[in-house]
Specification:
598 residues, mainly alpha, two-stranded parallel ribbon
């Protein structure tokens, strides 16, 4: 036994040598069969398997349960092909239990999902077998396999099928009534002159080595010694390098596409699942059913295609207010169609891709937005470029990529002949320039943060003025055909003025604030957003900070508090709104003397 272990440890000293050896001996054969992952995740069977795995091992990472559910679905597909005669290969899949005597984990999941029959197949004798096998199957399969099939008739013991048939018949006869099974009867059964009990007892220890390893042990010993002698030469040999590189190349050819596609859909799965969970956790119990997702979650800024609006509303609605089945069904469809949009980024799948981005954005999973959109290049719609750049600024990552996107959007805006598209691009560009300004360390000098030193230079001045200019152009460009977007652009213009420009443009701020207030007065119309209340609050706050006396300061601060409270009332989950309201409350408590006069 020790000698066996030594030889096996020596064999193939390096992974390079093992790779070449396994390929040369025909043991490593990689299947390049294309897998349709979107078809897999669309099925009820996949959902049942994943749910079963999550129930059995809730502590596992979701991606592990996802991977095992995909693997089992692939196995079911292989068995179905074998049943239909489309394949002559009988599938086998190794599974094991955590403890002896327990049901193997994957088999337990199969049973919970009610899919055991899907993993059964018939042999030529008409007997059903399960494709899942534990280690005993593979050990005994190797043990009972004759080293030389041509000499089966001459083999003794378990290697000889005639001996096995005779053994089966004798055991069958003993078990027939009225016989009573006793130790004496069992001891009467012999194989090649040895009692059955002794043979079974010796089987695990010796027969494997006799039939499987010993016939090739001399060769193994020689190869092991050769490996030790040549290991240094192998690592430097050009011919060895070529064979290793060829092995790696062929492995990549066989596996790369499927692995890449699997990683892609698993990434989509994990991102959308996390986003859906975040939405249910933080928003489900605080959002009323009259919510306008584009208005209340700031999706207007991206100008997603109109064809996607119904899909976005449907996805968010089912995730927030639907039944569990609604949520899961929506979740699975979005993931599958994101994957298809990657494979064929055309109009057929873009709506679900946009819906996925919207879900991630609402859930504030900005890094996941970037990962998702990096997989899809070129972008099938400019709105996804806006969302990508916006997510980059939110994550505070390297902004070079977002600068490239802005330049691309500006070039499109200059050449666009569509007033609607041009207006949408201007709104997006205004948003991106303002957040680029914030990302690079600039901020409102009239209300600076306590723990951060704001930058002041020409670059910051240029960035914020670009934002203001684009917002103003958008407000002019967008006509009455889209009042909701027009008012949004007007709010952008006011907010960027208030937050970023000098006091010499107070008149522009006041004009914009007056125009915005007119829309608020129109019976709380559908285009009014809580963000607009926040902008007006900051406008009055800024006026208060430049007040000449305490009474004027009090008046402006009171108005600022009213608008801030209204914003809080409609969107209590918005951290920026809550933080600003808290700061405003503290400043009002401190008073004019402490804040302004000092």
């Amino acid at each position: 036994m020790h000698f066996f272990k030594i030889i096996q440890l020596i064999r193939g000293v390096t992974w390079q040598a093992r790779l070449v050896d396994l390929r040369d001996r025909g043991i490593l054969r990689l299947d390049s069969h294309k897998v349709s992952y979107q078809s897999i995740v669309h099925t009820d069977e996949f959902r049942s398997l994943k749910a079963a795995l999550e129930e059995i091992r809730p502590a596992y990472a979701p991606v592990s349960n996802f991977a095992d559910a995909v693997a089992l679905m692939m196995l079911i597909s292989l068995i179905e092909n074998f049943r239909k005669g489309l394949s002559k290969t009988v599938p086998r899949f190794f599974t094991t239990a955590y403890n002896i005597g327990e049901l193997p984990l994957l088999l337990e999941a199969i049973d919970k999902a009610g899919l055991r029959q899907s993993l059964m197949y018939n042999t030529v004798l008409g007997k059903e077998h399960l494709a899942l096998r534990d280690s005993d199957y593979f050990v005994f399969k190797a043990t009972l396999y004759a080293p030389d099939p041509e000499n089966n008739q001459q083999e003794s013991g378990f290697s000889n099928p005639h001996v096995l048939l005779e053994l089966r018949q004798r055991i069958y006869a003993i078990l027939q009534p009225p016989n009573v099974l006793t130790a004496e009867l069992v001891n009467e059964i012999a194989i090649s002159g040895r009692p059955l009990i002794q043979v079974i007892d010796d089987l695990n220890t010796f027969l494997f080595f006799k039939n499987v390893w010993m016939p090739s042990s001399i060769e193994d010993q020689n190869i092991a010694l050769e490996d030790l002698k040549q290991v240094t030469d192998q690592l430097t040999s050009e011919s060895m390098k070529e064979r290793v590189n060829e092995g790696i190349r062929l492995a990549k050819v066989s596996l790369e596409e499927n692995i890449g596609e699997y990683l892609l859909i698993s990434v989509f799965w994990e991102q959308i699942e996390m986003a859906a969970e975040t939405l249910r956790k933080y928003f489900k119990n605080v959002i009323t059913e009259d919510v306008d997702y584009f208005r209340d979650f700031g999706l207007l800024r991206f100008a997603f295609p109109e064809s996607s609006h119904e899909r976005i509303n449907s996805v968010l609605e089912s995730l927030l207010f639907g039944t569990q089945d609604d949520e899961e069904g929506t979740h699975y469809r979005v993931i599958a169609d994101c994957y298809l949009a990657h494979l064929a980024p055309d109009d057929k799948y873009i709506d679900n891709l946009v819906a996925a981005v919207a879900v991630l954005w609402v859930a504030k999973m900005y890094r996941q937005v970037i990962i998702l959109l990096e997989k899809i290049n070129p972008s099938p719609h400019f709105s996804l470029d806006i969302a990508n750049a916006a997510a980059i600024y939110e994550t505070k990552e390297e902004a070079e990529r977002s600068t490239e996107i802005i330049q691309k959007l500006e070039a499109r805006c200059l050449t666009s002949q569509s007033p609607k598209e041009k207006g949408d691009l201007l709104v997006g560009l205004a948003y991106l320039y303002f957040h680029s300004w914030k990302r690079k360390g600039y901020g409102p000098l009239w209300d600076p943060p306590v723990i951060e030193n704001l930058k002041v230079d020409a670059i910051g001045h240029e960035l914020v003025n670009r934002a203001v200019s684009y917002a103003k152009q958008a407000c002019i460009m967008i006509g009455d055909w889209d009042i909701k977007k027009k008012v949004y652009a007007l709010n952008q213009y006011l907010y960027y003025l208030v937050m970023g420009v000098e006091d010499d443009r107070i008149l522009d701020m006041s004009t914009a604030a007056e125009s915005l207030l007119r829309y608020k007065d129109e019976d709380r119309n559908e285009w009014w957003q809580y963000r607009f209340d926040d902008s007006l609050s900051r406008y009055f706050h800024r006026l208060a900070r430049s007040s000449a006396n305490a009474q004027e300061w009090e008046d402006y601060m009171d108005r600022a508090m009213i608008f801030s409270q209204e914003a809080m009332q409609h969107m209590p989950w918005d951290d920026d709104i809550v933080d600003y309201n808290n700061r405003l409350t503290i400043q009002k408590k401190m008073g004019f003397e402490a804040l302004v006069k000092a």
